[in-house]
């Protein structure tokens, strides 16, 4: 069973500025600081580019305890980043693919749209586990990023 979920959020910063967060490990740091989505993010290898591997540990009481994900694509020209679960988490629930994609799309000089997409493939015998896939986490990440941009903009304007 194959599925896909998407979320879009307009942000009032230039696409290049949004990509400085989304295209780097800075996004992982922001998510970790917030603590409600992820308890801990460890960089196992890499510097944020293609091939980087992260270990995510989730707070107790969430359906997944954690997993490792690998950045399979980081395209600075297209402002596109893809990460796939490579160990644990969804793979233990019968998924053969769980990929998250972030794309920063330029709207005009001062704004952009962040499109977050989850793609997954789950074995037929585990199809009921597809209900664990929700857009909520990437939507919350987009809101976290938007708030980060608002704070940064306010800080820059204050100086």
TrEMBL record:
It holds the Pfam family Bet_v_1. GO terms for molecular function: abscisic acid binding; protein phosphatase inhibitor activity; signaling receptor activity. Residues 1-152 form the Bet v I/Major latex protein domain. The keyword Kinase does not apply. GO terms for cellular component: cytoplasm; nucleus. Belongs to the BetVI family. This is Bet v I/Major latex protein domain-containing protein. It comes from Fagus sylvatica (Beechnut).
């Amino acid at each position: 069973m194959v599925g896909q979920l998407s979320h879009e959020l307009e942000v009032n910063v230039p696409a290049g500025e949004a990509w400085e967060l989304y295209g780097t490990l800075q996004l992982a740091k922001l998510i970790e600081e917030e603590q409600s989505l992820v308890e801990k993010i460890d960089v196992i290898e890499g510097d944020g580019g293609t091939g980087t591997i992260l270990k995510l540990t989730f707070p107790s009481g969430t359906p997944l305890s954690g997993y490792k994900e690998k950045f399979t694509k980081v395209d600075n020209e297209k402002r596109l980043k893809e990460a796939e679960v490579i160990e644990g988490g969804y793979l233990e629930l019968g998924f053969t693919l769980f990929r998250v994609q972030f794309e920063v799309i330029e709207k005009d000089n001062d704004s952009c749209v962040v499109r977050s997409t989850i793609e997954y493939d789950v074995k037929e015998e585990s199809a009921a586990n597809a209900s664990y896939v929700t857009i909520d986490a990437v939507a919350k990440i987009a809101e976290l990023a938007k708030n980060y941009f608002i704070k940064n903009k306010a800080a820059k304007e204050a100086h």
